[in-house]
Amino acid sequence: MGAYKYVSELWRKKQSDVMRFLQRVRCWEYRQQPSIVRLVRPTRPDKTRRLGYKAKQVIDSRLFSVPF
């Protein structure tokens, strides 16, 4: 199996220990950042590749946090 299959398997099994840890770490990391952040790479590379994402200079991704 390729790397994208392993990553997509993780996203399908959201209750696994690895995914829970990854989500907890990412959540903490996002809270430490400012409200608008430029992303270097997508957070879900398997899904973005499937939807047609190619790593180019033109594409710009941003992460927005909304206060509750």
Automatic annotation (TrEMBL):
Kindly state one GO CC term assigned in the UniProt record.
cytosolic large ribosomal subunit
What are the UniProt keywords, alphabetically?
A: Ribonucleoprotein, Ribosomal protein
Q: Which GO molecular function annotations are given, in alphabetical order?
A: mRNA binding; structural constituent of ribosome
This protein's source sits in the domain of life called Eukaryota
One biological process term from GO is:
cytoplasmic translation
Looking up InterPro entries in the UniProt record yields: Rbsml_eL15_core_dom_sf (IPR024794), Ribosomal_eL15 (IPR000439), Ribosomal_uL23/eL15/eS24_sf (IPR012678)
State the similarity comment: Belongs to the eukaryotic ribosomal protein eL15 family.
Q: What is the name listed in the Swiss-Prot or TrEMBL entry for this protein?
A: Ribosomal protein L15
Lineage of producing organism: Eukaryota, Viridiplantae, Streptophyta, Embryophyta, Tracheophyta
